[in-house]
Amino acid sequence: MITKTKKHKLVKEFQTHDTDSGSAQVQIALLTQRIKELSAHLRKNPKDNHSRRGLLKIVNQRRRLLKFLQRVDEKAYNTITRKLTLKKFKKAVLSVDAEKRVEKNAEPK
To answer: Which CATH architecture has domain 4-106?
Structure first.
């Protein structure tokens, strides 16, 4: 569990303005800390399937927030992935040729 002081430090480090406590950057930082702590717990307790399920839910929530941040503010996305040393997602953008192929294949013959 994240202590109050750790949480306060993370919020201070990643907040976008003085009263910010719930932006995507802050949520991603807090979720990353929880993921680290749960991963350490699961290394000690490999049969704890309830915690494993919770970890998977947290990882997916962070993934969705990262994709949102990448779509909305690429600069903030790059900054937070660098600070937290997270893998970057590839942008899922179809090229013009790929869009034409998809449209062509969708037509009935």
So the answer is: Orthogonal Bundle (1.10)
